[in-house]
Specification:
By secondary structure, the protein is an alpha/beta fold. Helix content is 47%, strand content 14%.
């Protein structure tokens, strides 16, 4: 139910209006003065206000600003006995939804109220979505408690409130875009666009068109003008992932954007301006690329205003349990499965692994394990076979991870785990004699 506050010092008119509005399904609260109305707004959320212009303690036109200060999403309809254009104009400037004359416009009040509350509800939905987005990209949601990741978060928080260009360095899959999003959504540009592009995913020609836009006829297939990402990100943030892969010719154009906030579309001669913050990221050693003339030195120094180095997952393995729990809160529900945790042995295998793909690789491994899991816990058997080779007993000699003996040993151990050490059942499942199984267990020094 929507709530309407009626502010009017004429009791009979206020009561009549309250009756009419309540019959339309609105909850109505009343106040006889501007001060009393503002007091009600301190204790109750209101969707719309019907306010007389002439009040004993002030003017309703001026009261609009005070109402908006207390409840910004609330809409105000001003009622006056003697309407005049200057008051109406000023009322709208102050934030009023509408300004109508009593008596002549009585039949407009209810339709206006419905339109006003529709606008309020839309504004509330937008505010809710913005809050969810802001929460999603909060620095608090970046997973990790290791020293290196906390240092990176602290740096990102400090630079987020500025307009400085940021360079994020880190291995593939280490979370560079997550940091870029967090920096944007915690900056003064948060209500504007965050636009991202991977510079390694396009040819030189396509990348130039994507970033800077083009004019119709600039090249074959350019049948109409196209906005570039710089234009799309105006007032917001442009995230250039894998900046080290950008061709040298385009680096000069990007440098112009950073130095003078100017650029030219492909096929155009007109210089355009853009107010855009640039966050760049790479897994390359740009200083080495500069020495080898693969990256412009002047662009490097323009990008290198504020550098944040993101640690690899191998440098922060103490954070792996946090990531695992996070993904176990996400994937099982999506897969319609009940998985409550991970066996210590499986977690140990994850912490022993060499994570070349970093967090992205870990996420894929956990999703795969959730698909394969038959119980409520992720087990070593749910992990890829190369993870289990890391746990081979030390006394297995020189067995290779690719030898048939290694595969046989792992398979026997997996069956023994499945049967919870029941060797008779294990021999049946393996389709071998019990004596043979005992010989294999002794040969490979397996545990039952």
């Amino acid at each position: 139910m929507y709530t309407v506050l009626i502010i009017d010092d004429e009791e009979k008119l206020r009561s009549l209006l309250a009756r009419i509005v309540s019959l339309e399904g609105f909850e109505v609260i009343e106040a006889s003065t501007g001060k009393a109305g503002l007091k009600r707004l301190e204790t109750q959320d209101v969707d719309a206000v019907l306010c007389d212009v002439k009040l004993p303690d002030g003017n309703g036109v001026d009261l609009v600003k005070e109402i908006k200060a207390k409840q910004p999403l609330c809409e105000i309809i001003l009622l006056t006995a003697y309407g005049n254009i200057p008051d109406g104009v000023q009322a709208v400037k102050n934030g009023a939804f509408d300004y109508i004359t009593k008596g002549d416009d009585n039949n407009k009040i209810i339709p206006l109220l419905h339109r006003a509350v529709e606008k309020v509800q839309l504004a509330k939905r937008v505010a809710h979505l913005e809050k969810r987005v802001g929460s999603k990209y909060s620095f608090k949601n970046i997973i990790g408690k290791s020293k290196l990741i906390l240092q990176a978060i602290e740096l990102a928080q400090k630079v987020a409130v500025t307009d400085a260009t940021v360079l994020l360095l880190g291995e593939t899959g280490s979370g560079k875009e997550v940091f870029a999003q967090a920096i944007h959504h915690n900056s003064k540009r948060c209500k504007e666009n965050f636009v991202a592009i991977n510079c390694s995913a396009f040819s030189k020609e396509l990348l130039e068109s994507e970033i800077f836009g083009h004019k119709a006829g600039a090249f074959t297939g350019a049948i109409k003008d196209k906005k570039g990402l710089i234009e799309e990100a105006n007032k917001g943030t442009l995230f250039l992932d894998e900046i080290g892969e950008m061709p040298l010719e385009l680096q000069a154009k990007l440098l112009r954007v950073l130095e003078a906030r100017e650029y030219i579309k492909v096929g155009d001669t007109k210089t355009l301006t853009a107010d855009v913050r640039v966050i760049a990221a790479t897994n390359r050693n740009l200083e080495e690329d500069v020495r080898q003339d693969k990256f412009r030195e002047d662009l490097f120094y323009r990008l290198n205003v504020f550098t944040i180095v993101l640690p690899s997952l191998d440098e922060r393995k103490e954070d792996i349990p946090l990531f695992v729990q996070h993904y176990l809160n996400e994937f099982p529900a999506r897969l319609n499965k009940v998985i409550t945790g991970i066996e210590p042995a499986a977690l140990q295998l994850l912490q022993q692994h060499n994570w070349k793909g970093n967090v992205r690789e870990l996420k894929n491994i956990i999703e795969r394990a959730c698909i394969l899991a038959e119980g409520e816990l992720i087990t070593p058997e749910d992990l890829p076979v190369e993870f289990r080779f890391a746990a081979l007993p030390a006394n297995t000699g020189q067995l290779s991870a690719f030898s048939l003996a290694s595969v046989e040993m792992l398979h026997i151990q997996r069956v023994l785990n499945h049967t919870k050490g029941n060797k008779t059942e294990a021999a049946r499942l393996l389709d071998i004699g019990l004596t043979t199984l005992y010989r294999k267990i002794d040969e490979y020094k397996l545990g039952g």
